[in-house]
Amino acid sequence: MVFVYRIQLFVLAACLLAGSPAMAADPAADPPASLVAGGLRAITDFKLGALDAQARGSIQLARRKLNEALQSEPVQSDSLAAAYGELGGLYQVHLLLPAAEDCYHNARQLAPGEFSWVYYAAYLSEGEGRTREALERYEQARKLKPGYKALTVRLGNVLLDLNELDRAQAEFEQVVNVAGLEAASLYGLGEIALLRRDYDAAIDAFTRALNYEPAASRIHYPLAQALRATQRNDEAKAQLAMRGNEPPSIKDPQIESLESLKIGSRIHFINAMKATRQKDYAAASEGFAQGLAIEPDNVLARISYARTLYLADDKRGARQALEAALAVQPDNSLALFLLGVLTEEEGDAGKAAEYYRQAIRYTPDHTGAHQYLADRYYHQGNYAAAAQHYAGSIKGEPDNLSATIPYIDTLLLTDAPASTLMSALETAIERFPEYPGFRSLQIMLQAGSPDAEIHDPETALESARQLNEQYLTPPNQELLALALAATGEYQEAISIEENLLSYAQRAMPAEADRVAKTLAYYQDKTQPPLDELINHAALQPAPFNASAVFRDYPAARPY
Fold first, then answer.
1. Based on the number of CB atoms within 10 Å of its own CB, is 166 exposed (0-12), middle (13-18) or buried (19 or more)?
2. How far apart are CA 388 and CA 407, in angstroms?
3. What is the pLDDT of residue 2?
4. pLDDT in tens, 277-313
5. Is the separation of the CB atoms in 84 and 24 below 8 Å?
6. pTM for this entry
7. What gap in Å lies between CA 239 and CA 15, rounded to an integer?
8. d(Cα 99, Cα 103) in Å, to the nearest integer?
9. Which of 77, 202, 325, 400 is the most exposed place for a label (fewest CB within 10 A)?
10. Which pLDDT value is given to residue 1?
11. Residue 142 and residue 336: Cα distance in Å, rounded?
């Protein structure tokens, strides 16, 4: 507040000295002409006296952030869109709906590809009874995020209100088995069946909906109607006695996030996340601290707070925040994992492993805990245990390259069955086509392995030729020479290796001895042993990096 007050004094003094009008005190209500020309609307500054102090403070803070964005030079469209959208959300949940509509309009003008602002605008239209407009907006939102399931239920409800029954039914049927959407979808299907006078189908759908969500008291009335239509009057009477106005819930993270703005803490969490994205970790930790002062038992926010404290170089505070989160929710796997990483960085690898195991106990496919435990076993030389945990990490996140590389190495080091090793390599090549190491290793094994289930020199040669057609590089040339030797074509292998040796002596002298040794094998009409070909050092786990984990490890929800 002192900072804002000083700015206001400075602006007033500058205007008096210059004899010119001051910049608009509230740019949101009087935006720059260039933005108005681009289609932006002024946002009325409503009287907030009817709201509680917490709500007023949240809205005033969000509006101040918007005004700062409007006054920035140059104006950043995405940041400005986010500022309008966040203020719109606060207006919406506090029922200042015209201002919310204008905020979403501006956010969509500035960032037309952002799903949230289109979706919230559609939700606002639906709530206001502007059904055709809601339909158009939901359809636009679907184009931006076609896999968002909750939208399907809301689209079905709007179509039902518009009496487009076939389209509504198709929407509900898509998500009738999606967790958190079953009751709402079945309720919609029951309404459609009731309108079509298919009373048995309606009874079935409403009954199933109540089985999923007994508290959805709004279902009892249409169920009573269907029962009465089939002369089941006593059952209908019982349903009428239970009727209420609670609709089936829709598991909708977007709307849950919007509704959570009613809690004053959320504006602080939103600002903290914005600061996190800007790598201003001190401001982010301050924002989380302010939100937690209002909502102290928000475990997810406290974990995010711990992460920002760590990144702001307050590791002691990070530990205290993680321990506080676990005091409220002892089975939170992310907090356990992060505490393990922090403990390992401090040098107590044994205690860190205990935290990783606890995280796995509560979340069996926890990618991070499995990987860091596997890395510990790898460095201890316990490759069998490492392989087991790398497999667990990959199960939790199949596209985890940093776990897949050492996993393949543990299979080599433990002499895993040929089928296991080659299947893992095939999967890795398919998942990570941009990483050449897996394809190279496959060719080496097919060319040089004594195992009959793996040895396949003809396939190795075909693959090596394809690689060299795509990328003619020294490593690929070496693979081609190896595959040629494996098929008995030693003279051609010698010719390639001689050229490589000449190149290495000129450009890569450190590699010359190794290439010369390989050439000698071919000249003796033998192949180099696999142990000399496979570079296990390149397949080791990445170095331990706690900062990267605290900065980048994904959290399903940050608060």
1. exposed
2. 9
3. 28
4. 889 999 999 999 999 998 898 999 999 999 999 999 9
5. no
6. 0.62
7. 70
8. 6
9. 77
10. 27
11. 37
Burial status of residue 436 (CB atoms within 10 A of its CB: 0-12, 13-18, 19 or more): middle
Which tokens in the block code for residue 310?
């760590």
Among 318, 327, 276, 346, which residue's Cα sits nearest to residue 558?
Answer: 276
Of 475, 471, 443, 467, the C-alpha closest to 457 is: 443
Nearest to 251 by CA among 161, 152, 156, 331: 152
Q: Which residues contact 213 (CB under 8 A, 6 or more apart)?
A: 182, 183, 248, 249
Neighbour tally for 131: CB within 10 Å: 16
Query: What percent of the chain is helix, strand and coil (3-state, nearest 5)?
Result: 75, 0, 25
Max CA separation in the chain (angstroms): 96
Whether 402 and 431 have beta carbons less than 8 Å apart is answered as no
CA–CA gap between residue 269 and residue 291 (Å, rounded): 6
Instruction: Classify residue 42 by its DSSP letter.
Output: -
Instruction: Return the pLDDT at 175.
Output: 97
In whole angstroms, what separates CA 349 from the centre of its chain? Answer: 29
Q: How many CA atoms lie within 13 A of 559 on its CB side?
A: 35
Distance CA 140, CA 385 (A): 50
Scanning 196-280, the segments in alpha helix (DSSP H) are 199-212, 220-229, 233-241, 253-259, 265-277
Q: Which residues contact 347 (CB under 8 A, 6 or more apart)?
A: none
Cα(first)–Cα(last) distance of the chain, in Å?
Answer: 26
Supply the Cα-derived Rg of the chain in whole angstroms: 32
Low-confidence ranges of the chain (pLDDT < 50): 1-23
Q: Cβ neighbours of residue 337 under 8 Å, at least 6 residues apart?
A: 355, 356, 359, 366, 368, 369, 372, 553
Alpha carbons 19 and 14: distance in angstroms, whole number: 8
- Copy the structure tokens of residue 163: 């009496």
Residue pair 128/97 in contact (Cβ under 8 Å)? The answer is yes
Q: What pLDDT score was predicted for residue 277?
A: 86
CA 318 – CA 305 distance, rounded (Å) = 8
- Give the integer Cα–Cα distance in Å for 54 and 74: 32
